[in-house]
Amino acid sequence: MPLPHRTSTTLADGREIHFYDDVAGPERKVVDTRVLPPVESGAELRWDPTTEEWVVMAAHRRSRSAHTAAPCPLCPSTDGSATEIPTGDYDVAVFENRYPALRGADSGQRHEGTSLTLPAGGRCEVMVFGSEHDTSLAQLSEQRVRTVIEAWADRTTALNALPDVEQVVCFENRGSEIGATLAHPHGQIYAYPFMPSRFERMQRASRHAHARGTGCVFCSVLATELTAGHRVVARSPHWTAFVPHAARWPYEVHLYANRHVPDLAALTAEERADLAAAYRSLLRRFETVAEAPLPYMALWIQAPARGERTHSHLHAQIFSDRATPLKPKRLAAGELGAGTFISEVEPEQAAAALRAADTWTPATPVPDQPTTAA
């Protein structure tokens, strides 16, 4: 399937917006009638020398739209209401965030002893999954999920090409209980000017595995889960979903590409089509595994924009902070402060519950083993 029909233009303040249509149609009319001031961020990166991590300072984001904002800024514009989406019904829209955590002015470096401050380069984009307000990505059609995947891949390629970008992360926060500020189904794409520390640790683990001569650590994990079997949630010709052996969250699923592939842009047409069915099924399991839909966070782990891309293995992580809608897991001092999670849910039990929550029947036979990287 080729890339969905894309229309690209700018909003009233100069921010880019891109529309991806499920099927090609007439040229989309996009006119932003608002009068908007230029986007001002002032975000900074501050270095913590005790953990060797960057922290993003973005105080301006306190003024962004709240969950109860009316009218919804992600619904289509009408004659009486101009929103961030300057058109009628649409399929998928991606635009630069008006309150970006990453888009600082070039104010140079500042040093104060061990303290280092840099402008927060990079880019933040909002991806809206459709014009319908009262729904979720899991409830949209498989074709729409495929369009979302194509848009993710297209934006990954575009953002990786920017000179100040090191890592592109596509993610979704679903549910106000878990921090989503808007109810309209949407996700975000962050193009970081550095590699986030957790991704950096994954790269380090992969380098160590290659140095030991055991090949890709992610391929090894996938093979281990397939052999064990009891934590596997579902499989298809190109994807495997499982609850990790060392799951941190009450419900946590990792979705691995069966083939060793660095990012979404590198997937074949068959892998993307299969992913649409697989990903949609997993999200539906989070909606049906408990007596009410569980809020969740989801993100894609992709190769960095440059350097050591062969050590990365594309996969998604989807997790909820609660085992039931009314019982959230509260992170304690040892977890937030020391960084060591304590899980109170057996991964094997969570996997069994998720297997029973929905069905995922692949259209073609499932291979015995994934394609691994040496």
From TrEMBL:
Domain Galactose-1-phosphate uridyl transferase C-terminal: 223-318
Annotated ranges, domain Galactose-1-phosphate uridyl transferase N-terminal: 59-196
Positions annotated as active site in the UniProt record: H186
Pathway the protein contributes to: Carbohydrate metabolism; galactose metabolism
Reaction(s) the record says it catalyses: alpha-D-galactose 1-phosphate + UDP-alpha-D-glucose = alpha-D-glucose 1-phosphate + UDP-alpha-D-galactose
Pfam family, any one: GalP_UDP_transf
Listed Gene3D superfamilies: HIT-like (3.30.428.10)
Keywords tagged on the record: Carbohydrate metabolism, Galactose metabolism, Metal-binding, Nucleotidyltransferase, Transferase, Zinc
Required co-factors: Zn(2+)
InterPro entries: GalP_UDPtransf1 (IPR001937), GalP_UDPtransf1_His-AS (IPR019779), GalP_Utransf_C (IPR005850), GalP_Utransf_N (IPR005849), HIT-like_sf (IPR036265)
SUPFAM superfamilies, sorted: HIT-like (SSF54197)
Keyword Metal-binding part of the UniProt annotation: yes
Biological process terms in GO annotation: galactose catabolic process via UDP-galactose, Leloir pathway
Binding note for cofactor: Binds 1 zinc ion per subunit.
Entry binding sites for Zn(2+): C72, C75, H133, H184
Enzyme category, top tier: transferase
One GO MF term: zinc ion binding
GO CC annotations, alphabetized: cytoplasm
EC nos: 2.7.7.12
UniProt cross-references to PANTHER family, sorted A to Z: GALACTOSE-1-PHOSPHATE URIDYLYLTRANSFERASE
Family to which this protein belongs: Belongs to the galactose-1-phosphate uridylyltransferase type 1 family.
Protein name per Swiss-Prot or TrEMBL: Galactose-1-phosphate uridylyltransferase
Protein's organism: Streptomyces yokosukanensis
